[in-house]
Amino acid sequence: MSPESVLNWLRFLGGGVCHQIPARSLQVAGTPLPLCARDTGTYLGLILALAVLLLRGRARAGLLPSWPLLIVLAGFFLAWGADGLNSYLELLGLPHLYEPHNALRLLTGTLQGMALLLVVWPVAAFTFWRTPENRRVIHARELAGLVVAALLVTAILSQPWAVPRYVAGVLSGLGLVAMFTLLNSLLLAVALHREGSGEKPADVLRLLALALAPALLELVLLSLLRHHFLG
Predict the structure, then answer these.
(1) How many helices (H) and strands (E) are present in the chain, helices listed first?
(2) Is 138 in a helix, a strand, or coil?
(3) Residues 69, 8: Cα–Cα separation, whole Å
(4) Rounded to whole angstroms, what are the CA distances from 125 to 137, 143, 206, 217?
(5) DSSP bridge partners of 28
(6) Using an 8 Å Cβ cutoff, are 166 and 38 in contact?
């Protein structure tokens, strides 16, 4: 499968959840990435935060970040929403505070994706594991490292380099699938009365594997509906 066909498949999967406007998307050789710049950042941020949690041994961490860090994460959500609103006003030709830019969309999206994962993960830990750990999901130094990573990712992807943008396109598409799979696995755990039953990683992996098919089906259906009604 060629790199272009991989991006095309991911573009189709993302069609139901992202506007995919070319001017608001990063491009590789004139071809937009599967998701717009903001959504590319969101799911890259999700992947980055997940990687940090797993590398730091926080798979079972069941406590939300401390209140000061929650305020910082709330600030990430607000920045993402404010930049999105400003971009939408500009799209409609209405007065707006500043000229939108894909770098800002990417950065605010990445920070919001990190915040989203860090808030959802403790809920997942209590849903998946029989004995979730009484540990914070993230600490201040680690969050600072994630912010530096978000700035670095934004700086690299702001350059017209094909390979980093291609990798970002693939990872963000996989991040979208991962998020839908995670949310479906939480619903399945409740529906099957398997919440709080996981004792080893294989138990959780089986549940995630079971949730993958519904996640893909939902993305396909959303994309088909979007293309049916909007072309």
Answers:
(1) 7, 4
(2) coil
(3) 38
(4) 10, 19, 15, 25
(5) 31
(6) no
pLDDT at 135 over 90: yes
pLDDT at residue number 103: 96
Q: Would you place residue 51 in the very low, low, confident or very high pLDDT band (cuts 50, 70, 90)?
A: very high
- 31 pairs with which residues across the strands? 28
Indicate the length of the chain as a whole number.
231
| Cα(54)–Cα(66) distance, integer angstroms | 19
DSSP codes, 74-132: HHHHHHHHHHHHHHHHHHTT---SS---HHHHHHHHHHHHHHHHHHHHHHHHHHHBSS-
User: Considering the entire predicted model, what is its pTM?
Assistant: 0.94
CA dist 117 and 61 (Å) reads 12
Please tell me the number of Cα atoms within 13 Å of 221 on its side-chain side: 6
Structure tokens, 173: 């598409």
Which pLDDT band holds residue 1 (cuts at 50, 70, 90)?
low
